Amino acid sequence: MKIIKSTSVLIENLDQLENISLIPTMGNLHEGHLSLIKEAKKLSENIVFTIFINPIQFNSKHDLENYPRTLQQDINLLKEIGVTILFIPSVNDIFPVKPNLSYKMPIISNELCGKTRIDHFKGVITVIDRLFKLIQPSYAIFGKKDYQQLYLIKRFVFDSKLPIKIIEAPTIRNIDKLALSSRNNLLKTKDINLAVELYKKLNICAESVLNGVKIHDAELIAKKELVKEGWEIDYLEVRSQENLKKPSYNDSKLVVLGAGFLAKVRLIDNIEFCIPTTI
Ligand code: AMP
């Protein structure tokens, strides 16, 4: 594994590689991240793995400063599992000048996570655009855990007609079904058991809809339960898998997405489900 820290060295090394799979991350690696490497290995021998804590996708300085950083541990894990290049750029390397995204973000980027995290997804797409231009991968692998992010990256690739195949990887969970996340490491012990309630309530919401409960009512019940248990809810909504809009009468492929805080730590999760007929 080559560890590269500057764009100029990266470009030299990319010259010899074809058919690249790109895996962008912010580090503090866990089994969820490593599962993306397993997906990449099915597609290509040449894997470029990036660790970059992207400042322009954070809405608060506190959140950026507190994001878990475990670089040496991450390097050891990656050496063990094996990637071709680990790229760890600095902010100056990625954004030598103030970034300016020409792509017009879809309206849906201002809903769900984007409603309270203003310009978060613009920050995400800006860094992805930079990495895509720099690395020109054939494949890029992203987790469904960040469902809205994945949707917006797919839209960006489609709208920009980029020759990159986006690979969607399933969410990896712990034994209790809590979605693995770097932010879980910020939870206090007493909140770790509570964290899995988000998944449980999303599941109950999906099951209720499947059993004929009106979507709005199912969302409300799940939110109330979470608040009772100590969650501060950002949103909990059923949306169409196809476009992330509120479901219309003929949408059968749905996803319930939720985000909330436990002692200021923001967690997200989602569950896809299908209803057999119209709502
Ligand atoms: P992050 O480092 O949080 O920016 O995540 C980097 C990539 O790993 C993104 O594509 C995430 O969707 C993906 N990812 C994070 N957590 C998980 C998980 N539990 N299961 C699968 N993929 C994940």
What is this structure, in a nutshell?
The chain is α/β, with parallel strands linked by helices and 279 residues long. The protein has helices at 7-14, 31-41, 61-66, 71-81, 91-94, 113-116, 120-135, 147-159, 189-195, 197-210, 215-228; strands at residues 2-4, 21-25, 47-51, 85-87, 139-143, 165-169, 232-240, 253-262, 265-274.
Sum up the structure in keywords.
279 residues, single chain, globular, three-stranded antiparallel β-sheet, binds adenosine monophosphate, alpha/beta
What does this molecule look like?
The mean pLDDT is 96. A 6-stranded parallel beta sheet has the order 1-4-3-2-5-6, with helices on both faces. A 3-stranded antiparallel beta sheet has the order 7-8-9. It is built from 11 helices and 9 strands. It has helices at 7-14, 31-41, 61-66, 71-81, 91-94, 113-116, 120-135, 147-159, 189-195, 197-210, 215-228; strands at 2-4, 21-25, 47-51, 85-87, 139-143, 165-169, 232-240, 253-262, 265-274. By secondary structure, the chain is an alpha/beta fold. 39% of the residues lie in helices and 20% in strands. The chain starts with a strand and ends in a 5-residue tail after the last strand. Helix 2 (31-41) links the parallel strand 2 (21-25) and strand 3. It is globular, with a radius of gyration of 19 Å. It binds adenosine monophosphate (AMP). Adenosine monophosphate is lined by residues 25-26, 32-33, 35-36, 142-143, 145-146, 169, 171-172, 179-182. Adenosine monophosphate binds at residues 25-26, 32-33, 35-36, 142-143, 145-146, 169, 171-172, 179-182.
